[in-house]
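Sequence in, structure out. Go.
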Amino acid sequence: MKEKLEMIRAAVLEELKGASAKTELENVRVKYLGKKGELTQILRGMGKLSNEERPIVGKLANEVRENIEELITKASDTLKSKAKEMKLKSEIIDISMPGKKQTIGKRHPLDLTLEKVNEIFLSMGFVIEEGPEVETDYYNFEALNIPKNHPARGEQDTFYINDSILLRTQTSPIQIRTMENQKPPIKMIAPGKVYRSDAADATHSPIFYQIEGLIVDKGITFADLKGTLEMFTHKMFGDKMETKFRPHHFPFTEPSAEMDATCFVCKGEGCKVCSGSGWIELLGCGMVHPQVLRNCGIDPEVYSGFAFGFGLDRITMLKYGIDDIRALYESDMKFLKQF
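Output:
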C-alpha cells in the first residue's frame, strides 16, 4: 500500500504539469481526493491493515493528501498569474495614440427657462412649492370649483388611474394644498410636470411642464395681478415687450383673463406665427374665485388673491424660436447642443 501511495503522489505531480485550465485541476482533485477518488479508496481500506501497519500507512496517506492539496493550490495560483499576465499584455495602452474626445453635455432649454422663471419670481418675493404628480380628483378638480360635468373631467383630457385618482392635469392642486396648510399672506409659484391625454404633435404633448402662481392677502386686486405679470414679462423677454389682457373664463378665477404678449417673431408687425395679429397668447390668469378660497378655509370677505398659469414649454419655444414641442423631448444632441 505504501508503494501505491507513492505512485499516486507521482501521478498527481505528472498530471498537474500538463494542466492548463481550472477544469483540468478540478478533474485531478476529483480523481484522487473525491468521494470515489483513488486516495479516498485507500483510506477507506485501512481497516484491513494490521495494527502495526495502520499508523504507518495512515501517516503516509495524510502526508500524500496534504501534498496533493498543496500541489493543486500551487498549480491554481500559477494559472491565475499566467492569466493575469496575459490580460495585462492584451490591455496595454499605447500612450502615443490620440485620445478620444469626451462629449460634454449641455443644459436643456427647459431647464434654462425654468431657472430663469424661478429667479424672476423669487426676486419678487415668491416661494417655490411642490406637490404630488399622482393626484386625487378632489385636489385636481373639485377644490378648484370644477364640477363633475365639466368638460375637463372627460377621459379624453385626463389620465385616470381610477374614479378618484389621476395624473395631475395642472399644478393648481399645489395651490389648494398650500392654502389649506398655510395662512395668508401667501405668495408662491408651483412648477412641475403635468399630464394630459393629447396626441403628440407640433404643439401638444401628453407630458409637459407648467408653472402656476398664487398670491392671497388682504386688499389684493386685479391691478396687482396686471403689474406682477407685466414685470415678469419684461424681465423674461425684455422691456420692449408689450402685454394686453383679454376677458376669458376659468372655473377657479373670477374675473378671468388671458394675457397676450408682443409676437416674438415679427415684433408686433404681424406674421404667420401670430396669424397677422402681432400678438401671441402667453398665459391665463384671474382673481381667485371666492368658492375656491372657501374650499381652503379662507374667508373671501377678508382675503382676496390672484392666480396665473402658463406652460413652461410654450415660454421656452417662444424664447428660443422653437416651432415643435416634440424637439424638447426627443433627446436629439444636435438640437440640444444649440443651447
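Check: Strands lie at 127-128, 134-136, 165-167, 186-195, 207-217, 243-250, 253-262, 279-288, 304-311. The longest strand covers residues 207-217.
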